[in-house]
Design goal:
The active site is at 157 (proton donor/acceptor). By secondary structure, the chain is of the alpha/beta class. 37% of the residues lie in helices and 21% in strands. Bound molecules: adenosine-5'-diphosphate. Adenosine-5'-diphosphate (ADP) is lined by residues 217-219, 246, 290-292, 295, 334-336, 339-340.
């Protein structure tokens, strides 16, 4: 990969924080090449036993701790991480902390240096992402309080999609509603931006082409990109739209929500729980949200859940190819996209009509790196690109700090 000079010296480091509702993941990148130095997570915040674990660049354990019956909150976890980092980072100079921030609203179309005023502004976006944004911002505030001298950079999951054509962002609702920010935003933008940044390295001929990337993890979405820019995506106003996911339902006739409320007497909290936590692979199978468990199961309901995911991917692929006016390549990423040979094979089989021909042995031999899985004769190329949102955030954070 090209490593533009962001002014990072060999002992300079960038810390990346990805704070969810009950966990904080962190990674540390070092020097001008952004070599991964350390990564880890603090899990089970707020309930039960909080656990910390970290591993070094070789995957060897680099720290472990538990807090039995005294769970940490976001601030406590950040305080621990900063102390741990200070011990571990002897001789290293943390130039920036980059945060994955789920929503940047209409205005934040790129990485943003964080200060009190920007934080206040971002607080106003909480109604757009009430399940994620408060946790993202709690970590920023903790670093601001505990290490105010370190610059912090927000990298938004929505930013990559802000340049989509207006029609791709529109709902067919009256302006009195859409004027309140109710439109399609799209998410997983840092994953798609990373994929777009790698295309010129692994397939230069595709750099100006039409690509649909599928980020298939616990959350899952697809994005149509033309010449490295987002043109359309399956996630919309929230990250519950589009594909079925681990526990989220994906695209749903809004009439179903009205029926749940009107006929079944469900309140907002119950509907939210159903759509976000009890649906998707878990809801359909009744067994698990985890693809590995479903693939290992002989229960027909597990196969039904996988089939429904594959079917919806195929439907969305057709829709995104239409938005692009054709298709040159399909890219798989995320835990399922990178690891499930069977899901990739089924998606490629269903995409034969678009010109995708799978190379079965290449598909079976993907080994953790970027790999082409389509046959040499395939009209549309198919690739696997391991997700690396953290590196994207580190590069953005370093660039912004270097540009000051
Ligand atoms: P997140 O969105 O939480 O970052 P990941 O990108 O790690 O999630 O993806 C998690 C999903 O990837 C789970 O459904 C998991 O079962 C699936 N997965 C991971 N490894 C494999 C594997 N070897 N085969 C099939 N699915 C896998």
């Amino acid at each position: 990969m090209n490593a533009p000079n962001h002014g990072l010296a060999p002992d300079d480091a960038v810390v990346v924080i990805n704070a969810g509702s009950s966990s904080i993941k962190f990674s540390l990148f070092r020097g001008p090449d952004f070599s991964p130095e350390l990564k880890g997570k603090v899990e089970n915040l707020y309930a039960g036993t909080t656990r910390f674990s970290a591993s070094d660049a070789q995957g060897h354990p680099a720290g472990e701790r538990t807090w039995a019956d005294a769970p940490l909150d976001h601030e406590g976890a950040m305080r621990f991480l900063i102390d741990h980092a200070e011990e571990h980072l002897q001789g290293m100079n943390v130039r920036a902390v980059g945060h994955r921030i789920v929503h940047g609203g209409v205005h934040y179309s790129g990485p943003q240096l964080l200060d009190g005023a920007v934080l206040d502004d971002l607080e106003k976006l909480i109604p757009l992402a009430p399940l994620h944004l408060p946790h993202n911002l709690a970590s920023v505030r903790a670093v601001l309080a505990l290490a105010p001298q370190v610059p912090q950079v927000a990298c938004f999951d929505t930013a990559f999609h802000t340049g989509q054509p207006a029609l791709a962002q529109a709902f067919a609702l009256p302006p009195s509603i859409t004027g309140r920010g109710i439109r399609r935003y799209g998410f997983h933008g840092l994953s798609y931006e990373y994929i777009a940044s790698r295309v010129p390295d692994f397939a230069p001929a595709l750099a100006g082409g039409r690509i649909v990337a599928a980020h298939l993890g616990n959350g899952a979405s697809m994005c149509a990109m033309h010449a490295g820019r987002s043109v359309a995506s399956t996630m919309g106003f929230t990250a519950v739209d589009g594909l079925p996911m681990g526990t989220r339902c994906g695209a749903l006739d809004p009439g179903v929500v009205l029926y749940l409320i009107d006929e079944l007497g469900m309140d907002v909290a119950a509907v939210q729980r159903l759509l976000y936590q009890e649906s998707g692979l878990l809801g359909v199978s009744g067994i698990a949200a985890d693809m590995r468990t479903l693939e290992a199961s002989v229960d027909p309901r597990a196969q039904l859940a996988i089939d429904l995911l594959v079917y919806r991917i195929g439907r969305e692929l057709g829709s995104l190819a239409a938005a692009l006016g054709g298709l040159d390549a399909l890219v798989f990423s995320g835990g399922i996209g990178e690891n499930s040979v069977a899901v990739r094979a089924a998606v490629c089989r269903d995409a034969a009509w678009l010109g995708v021909t799978l190379d079965e042995s290449a598909n079976g031999a993907v080994g953790g790196g970027i790999a082409r899985i389509s046959a040499a004769s395939s009209k549309v190329a198919a690739w696997v690109v391991p997700a690396n949102e953290e590196l994207m955030i580190a590069r953005h954070a370093a660039a912004l700090v270097g540009a000051q």
